[in-house]
Amino acid sequence: MRPNLLIVGILGATAVALGALGAHALKEVLNPTQLESFKTGVLYHILHTLFLGFVFLLYLNNTSKRLKLIFNLVFWGIILFSGSIYFLNLRYILNAEFLKFLGPITPIGGVLFIAGWILLAFESKTIINSKNE
């Protein structure tokens, strides 16, 4: 998967929609702990969607394979981290208790976020040097 602005747009729209859902419809349904957890999923979702937008802009000027990898790591981080949080907190509403298996998935998404940020730090020297040439 190469950095894709369509994906960034869809992720941004879903983050805003899920944030609105949490702020309005779910505040009457979820307990305070669940609601706070849901909000954490939204926060990481929107922040990392913005990060993907930044990676996309970097990719326009530097088609590094590492930027593709960063994009993929962070994309899957959003899916696994935020996605698992959403489903874990909505499983009672969805009558899907079996979704509790997602609990161990959340930290895997977090590790993918961390890996994406660390890889960006390593890639920064390459990006800066390519601009100075």
Mind explaining what this structure looks like?
The chain has helices spanning 5-23, 32-61, 65-90, 105-132. The protein is mainly alpha-helical and 133 residues long. It has one domain (5-127). α2 (32-61) packs antiparallel against α3 (65-90) and α3 (65-90) runs antiparallel to α4. The two termini are 28 Å apart. The mean pLDDT is 93.
Unreliable stretches: none
Domain tally: 1
Major sheet: none
Q: Gyration radius, to the nearest Å?
A: 17 Å
Number of strands: 0
Average pLDDT taken over every residue: 93
Helix content: over 70%
Listing every helix as H and every strand as E from the N terminus to the C terminus, the arrangement reads HHHH
Note the gap between the termini. Answer: 28 Å
Main structural class = mainly alpha
Strand content: under 5%
Shape field: elongated
- Total helices: the number is 4
Layout of helices and strands:
Blueprint: H1 5-23, H2 32-61, H3 65-90, H4 105-132
Helix pairs in contact: 1-2, 2-3, 3-4
How would you sum up this structure in a few lines?
The protein is mainly α and 133 residues long. It has helices at residues 5-23, 32-61, 65-90, 105-132.
Keywords, separated by commas or semicolons:
133 residues, mainly alpha, 4 helices, 77% helix, 0% strand
